[in-house]
Write a structure and sequence with these properties.
Blueprint (H helix, E strand, L loop, with lengths): L2 E6 L15 H15 L3 E6 L4 H6 L1 H10 L6 E4 L2 E5 L5 H7 L22
């Protein structure tokens, strides 16, 4: 099974889904990470403000930050290779990377149960 590592920018908490003004992208991604873990996908998240050593100790991440800076986060690694930077992956991308087939219901927004994009 693959290992997906997500290196988040500095967030207020481990998922960024806290405070009074919650970013809908973080809400959707947190739900997608939860879904991925339930599917057996090995996925880890690292928050720059809470786990800075995870960034400093990984040579790939360290070099990425030296060249691109923290504004280029999030950084997504798959088995220690850069897969995506600058945005969070979709549930469809997570499934594709892990070779998991999605049915149509699993591609809808989890918070409102429809495809309206209300999140």
């Amino acid at each position: 099974m693959i290992l997906i590592q997500v290196y988040d920018p500095a967030l207020c908490c481990s998922t960024g889904v806290c405070g009074t003004e919650v970013d809908s992208i973080l809400v959707t991604f947190a739900a997608d990470v939860d879904w991925a873990k339930k599917q057996g996908i090995n996925i880890e998240r690292f928050n720059l403000s809470q786990q800075p050593m995870a960034f400093a100790e990984n040579e790939i991440v360290k070099k990425f930050l030296e060249h691109s800076g923290v504004d280029a986060l999030p950084l997504i690694l798959i088995d220690e290779e850069v897969a995506l930077a600058g945005r969070y992956p979709t549930r469809k991308e997570l499934a594709q990377w892990a070779d998991i087939k999605l049915d149509e219901q699993e591609t809808t927004k989890p918070c409102c149960g429809g495809k309206t994009g209300c999140c």
